[in-house]
Amino acid sequence: MKNGLLKEGQILYFGKNGDHQAYIMADGQIRYGEYSGSIHKVGREIMKAPCNGWMAWYYIDKDTGNREPLDLLRKKLRNEMDLASRIKKCMDGEEL
Prior knowledge:
By secondary structure, the protein is an alpha+beta fold. The chain has a domain at 11-69. Helices cover 36% and strands 22% of the residues. The protein has a six-stranded antiparallel sheet. A hairpin with a 5-residue loop joins strand 2 and strand 3. The protein is elongated and about 50 Å long.
């Protein structure tokens, strides 16, 4: 949420076509019915098994209207952070 990719109150969907919905709380955790916690913890409660929340939870992409896995946002953020780090190194005169 700190980077603005997700917002408080935004709905997440469990599975590409799933009916389970959770919302993002102010602290960045999610709530699904009586369950709240990380995307992994809440997914585990739904599945009654271990869950990789990055792959299990989906958001609606504002540009395409499609459901996309949270993992896509994580990859975008990592790429942006890597690029920023490379730019800083160049500005500091370091070799890449």
